[in-house]
Design brief:
Elements: E1 2-6, H1 13-24, E2 27-30, H2 31-41, H3 44-53, H4 61-72, E3 81-84, H5 90-102, E4 109-114, H6 117-125, E5 127-130, E6 136-138, E7 157-158, H7 165-179, H8 181-188, E8 192-196, H9 201-213
Parallel strand pairs: 1-3, 1-4, 2-3, 4-8
Antiparallel strand pairs: 5-6, 5-7
Helix pairs in contact: 1-9, 2-3, 4-5, 6-7
The structure holds BIS(adenosine)-5'-pentaphosphate, magnesium ion (MG) and zinc ion.
Length: 214
């Protein structure tokens, strides 16, 4: 199965992607997590991406498309993948179509998660992310039973660098300008389904799961 999770910052893409990838045995590919891993390593790619991410801007298409091209070739993607945070521009969507075409593969579904901006802000500002495995928590809506530690791996929970209010606002502006056109792009290809992201984590998971098996 080849799936895209589409939606604004903070709608719950990462939270759902981890659950769906496990349930459907597909690999979870988050470009945001890939960039954050490069930043943590101190690589050249990390240094370049950080400049954009800290401002809430998108990393340039050429860089993002290249890392996705390499990632999709990995063996763990042979059973399918779930893309979280990619594509984010029309150019990226076209590049993905091209990559899949070359391998005679197609997308199965694009799931749009809808949440209003005021709820998004509250979710992002309260988010805590595991330094080691990337699992997301929320201080109010989805707290870790181990307080400041991750339930999955025991890692420390931290706040993301780009989760300051002014950066989040800019990420939303970029989403509305550059990523929102992908809703029509995939709707025209008859691939798009939407879910209400304001429901609980479990309810959203059930909604997405039933879309994927239908
Ligand atoms: P990325 O890491 O992809 O961030 P994002 O799209 O802004 O999305 P988030 O990760 O902030 O939110 P999410 O939807 O995953 O929500 P989450 O599950 O955490 O990208 C970061 C940056 O990298 C970009 O700004 C850009 O610079 C760069 N980048 C990445 N991809 C790129 C690309 N393709 N091209 C160019 N640049 C790229 O949930 C949020 C919070 O809500 C959590 O605390 C969670 O616990 C809570 N929550 C989740 N679901 C629920 C629920 N149902 N009810 C209550 N709370 C919930
Ligand atoms: Mg995420
Ligand atoms: Zn962890």
């Amino acid at each position: 199965m080849r799936i895209i999770l589409l939606g604004a910052p903070g709608v719950g893409k990462g939270t759902q992607a981890k659950l769906i990838a496990k349930e459907f045995n597909v690999c979870h590919i988050s470009t945001g997590e890939m960039f954050r891993a490069e930043i943590a390593k101190g690589s050249n790619l990390g240094k370049i991406s950080k400049e954009y991410m800290d401002k809430g801007d998108l990393v340039p298409d050429e860089i993002t498309t290249q890392i996705i091209g390499e990632r999709l070739k990995c063996d763990d993607c042979s059973n399918g993948f779930l893309l979280d945070g990619f594509p984010r521009t029309t150019a990226q969507a076209e590049a993905l179509d091209k990559l899949l075409n070359e391998e005679n593969k197609t997308l199965d579904k694009v799931v749009l998660i809808n949440v209003k901006d005021d709820i998004i802000l509250e979710r992002i500002i309260g988010r805590r992310t595991c330094k080691q495995c990337g699992t997301n928590y929320h201080i109010k809506f989805n707290p870790s039973k181990l307080k400041e530690k991750c339930e999955s791996c025991g890692g420390d929970l931290t706040q993301r660098e780009d989760d300051k209010e002014e950066v989040v606002t800019e990420r939303l502006v970029q989403y509305n300008k550059l990523t929102q056109p992908l809703i029509a792009y995939y709707n025209n290809k008859n691939l798009l389904s939407s879910v209400d992201g304001t429901l609980s984590v479990d309810e959203v998971f059930h909604e997405i799961s039933s879309l994927l098996i239908s």
